[in-house]
Design brief:
The protein is built from 15 helices and 17 strands. It has 601 residues and is an alpha/beta fold.
Amino acid sequence: MAERKSPQSAQESTASDRAAAAWWHQAVVYQVYPRSFKDTTGSGLGDIAGVTSRIGYLKQLGVDAIWLSPFYPSQLADGGYDVDDYRNVDPKLGTMDDFDKLAKTAHEADIKIVVDIVPNHSSNLHPWFKAALAAGPGSPERDRYIFRDGRGEHGELPPTDWVSHFGGPAWTRVPDGQWYLHLFTVEQPDWNWKNPDVRADFIKTLRFWLDHGADGFRVDVAHGLCKDLDRDNLDQWSVTPPSLPADGSHPLYDRDDVHQIYREWRKVFNEYDPPAFAVAEAWVNPARQYLYASDDELGQVFNFEFAKKNWVRDDMHQAIEEGLEAARRSGSTATWVMSNHDVPRHASRYALPQVPSTRHHQLAHDWLLRDGTSYHQDREVGTRRARAAILMELALPGSAYLYQGEELGLFEVADIPWDKLEDPTARNSERAAKDKGRDGCRVPLPWVAADGVEGSFGFSPRVKVEGAGVSADQAGQPSEPAHLPQPAWFADFAADRESAQPDSMLTLYRRALALRHELMPADTSLTWLDEDRPSSQPDGADGQHGGVIAYRRSNGWASVTNFGAEPVALPAGEVLLTSGKLCTDGRLPQDTTVWLRLNQG
């Protein structure tokens, strides 16, 4: 177990101490979805020891931290985001000793650990929810969750007509007649954050993981903790609105009260040396993102506007401007993300037609719903744009959040058989809202090309080994299949194959991250270059306007991305790295990014 560090006085703090405390300001954080990263026992599920076994790979990649998606005991109603016990490791994934070993190994490699915390809801198998059901209406135990009497003559109707995120009613009735709220699956009852027991227990959880070596947290549904259910117009509001108001007036999300919770958490973070931090998953109005990232609250918030955009110059430019402005208002640093465990992989999104839609990623979801057959996925174009996008992203001031497998250039697995899907979205959504879910970006990673599908591309060993999810009497038996089926084309994207290819996506990521460490200035200023300009011509992706995104950092490090069909001249300077080949005359072709060291003067 990692020892808790005592705070330093202001007089003892040095410049190097302050730099260490601010490690996350411009870090590269790699998201690990543990169940799909690396299986060491043959259970078919990735495990904590599997993450530890690949710390060398992550060190060579060049990341500063790993963010671990939930690894707690869970019935997996929602990929581990239904938590039975917040202060333990799922036995199917390992033990607390395994976590401590991971933290120690990562820290020895100068890699920080970020733990995913899920404060909006627990699992219905959590001891407190079981106690709430047993105790009955009006009890202190029941007050830890959101229970309400139903409508109708006998309370037979739910308190509201809300539909949950994953389809189906957002309320479930219990035998004594009351209803409990679950904005997600029925197995995920929402906590009542007005209850002091809930607040105190999460403080205990924060300290537990910090004492075990965590350096920070990713906060799931950070905008959803505080709710206002004491109003008459609740049915006028949706659980899944296309956007949120800019005044915090939605009854379920982004209410001003939530910031008092995070100010309490900040006091805990500051007890540690260096202080811990957190990044908020807050799908809120861009005008209110900055509130979560202030230095007296969490520290950072995800800029999802960047992840929402199509490969269109003006859209991307707007997302960058909004991200920088949110960082300025919060006094923190920006975050940049293109993919995570909740959205289709960006290599596929950029390979599909780039057309406007009423909801972000709508076309990609429609394509997935039809097993990838409805629209043409141009993988060559998608790869070219993904290569250009990562260089454009990594030179921006702030932190970059990468999702496992994007460094391999993985595409979404669109044709997973419906009977193999795990995401509750696929089971619960229906009619016009039908959606195949998020499993296509959660397929276990390919490590060894020669192992093939039958060997899970090195994700699992060939035979079972005693450990997480495997008992001693099962050892030596053939391993279970990967928990989600891997396609044959994964062989072309396996880590060992890409490691040997000088032009692979993995090689580009390694080179880019190594250069980023050399070039990243301490300040977070950005200056738009003269080459940065929109286009009035429909010469971009699928008839969208083209143009150029071009900016420089304070030390002369510049990034130029061409979205238009016509090659563009580069500013004077030394070419450091390109996402693809330049034209023979040195100009920058479409869907390509270049890093330069600008000439002085």
